[in-house]
């Protein structure tokens, strides 16, 4: 099993360096030399590659890395959209209330007050607070002015490999509601998601009034 820690998005310069968008909050994944694995587009099996060095590109949210055997811009261009992987056994330690994104995917989402299952976690997005993308078992009425609804715009970004659960979340007053056909975004904060039980494959939510109705 593998963890996707980053994706090559473009060449950097003329000497074979590549730009990597990180899916991990651990900088050492892209800076510390050592063995990584590369999954090229259209391939089914990753190939080992040596990461020689890397550095963070300030203001871009990207890393620039040099891989062994990649010495020209043309070779770097050929790696565009390749995934950089690490073995699942190579997980780095987490702080309290931090979770690997891979562990959150497919957890059952249960409303704590009713013990009703409403769906499962399909993804984790970054915005002001991290957001759980919940695939609903059936359409729900969603408050269109809530952070969960508004965060589906361009402010949301690709998830990192680990996420820290925030303590609090400020919610604006709701005004209107709209139907969500299949998914809703839930702020991943303690007051809304008080229980994450990886062993039981579930998490429990206390959605604010109006965030999700008809549950």
Overall morphology: elongated
Domain count: the total is 2
The radius of gyration computed from the alpha-carbon positions, rounded to a whole number of angstroms, is 20 Å
Instruction: Work out the helicity level.
Output: under 10%
Uncertain residue segments: 147-159, 168-180
The residue-averaged pLDDT reads: 81
SS-derived structural category: mainly beta
Q: Estimate what percentage of residues fall within beta strands.
A: 35-45%
Number of strands: 17
Our measurement of the CA-to-CA distance between the termini, rounded to an integer number of angstroms, reads 36 Å
Number of helices: 4
Largest sheet: 6 strands, antiparallel, barrel
Q: How are the strands ordered across the major sheet?
A: 1-2-5-4-3-6
Secondary-structure element series: EEHEEEHEEHEEEEHEEEEEE
Give the helices and strands, then pairings.
Elements: E1 2-12, E2 17-22, H1 28-31, E3 34-39, E4 47-57, E5 62-67, H2 73-77, E6 83-87, E7 98-100, H3 101-104, E8 108-111, E9 116-125, E10 131-136, E11 140-143, H4 147-150, E12 162-164, E13 177-180, E14 183-187, E15 195-197, E16 202-205, E17 212-213
Parallel strand pairs: 8-16
Antiparallel strand pairs: 1-2, 1-6, 2-5, 3-4, 3-6, 4-5, 7-12, 8-9, 9-10, 10-14, 11-13, 11-17, 15-16
């Amino acid at each position: 099993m593998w963890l996707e820690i980053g994706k090559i998005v473009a060449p950097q310069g003329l000497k074979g360096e590549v730009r990597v968008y990180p899916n991990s909050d651990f900088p050492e994944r892209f800076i510390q030399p050592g063995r990584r694995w590369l999954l090229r587009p259209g391939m089914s099996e990753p190939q080992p590659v040596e990461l020689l060095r890397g550095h963070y590109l300030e203001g871009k949210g990207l890393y620039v890395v040099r891989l062994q055997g990649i010495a020209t811009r043309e070779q770097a261009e050929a790696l565009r959209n390749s995934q950089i992987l690490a073995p699942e056994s190579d997980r780095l330690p987490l702080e309290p209330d931090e979770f690997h994104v891979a562990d959150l995917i497919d957890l059952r989402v249960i409303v704590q007050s009713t013990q009703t299952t409403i769906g499962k976690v399909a993804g984790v997005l970054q915005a002001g607070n991290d957001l759980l993308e919940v695939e609903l078992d059936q359409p729900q009425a969603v408050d269109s002015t809530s952070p969960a609804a508004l965060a589906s715009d361009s402010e949301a970004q690709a998830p990192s490999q680990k996420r820290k659960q925030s303590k609090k979340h400020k919610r604006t007053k709701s005004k209107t509601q709209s139907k969500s056909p299949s998914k809703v975004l839930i702020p991943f904060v303690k007051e809304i998601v008080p229980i994450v039980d990886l062993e039981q494959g579930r998490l429990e939510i206390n959605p604010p009034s109006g965030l999700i109705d008809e549950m």
